[in-house]
Amino acid sequence: METKTMEEYMERIRVLDTLEQQAMGLSRMLTTYTDRLQERLEQRIDIELASEAVTLTSIKNLEAVVSKSVQQKQSLIKKCQQLDREMDGVLTVSSKVREIKQLLDVMEYTKRKS
Question: Ranges for the BLOC-1-related complex subunit 6 C-terminal helix domain (predicted)?
Answer without folding.
Answer: 14-108
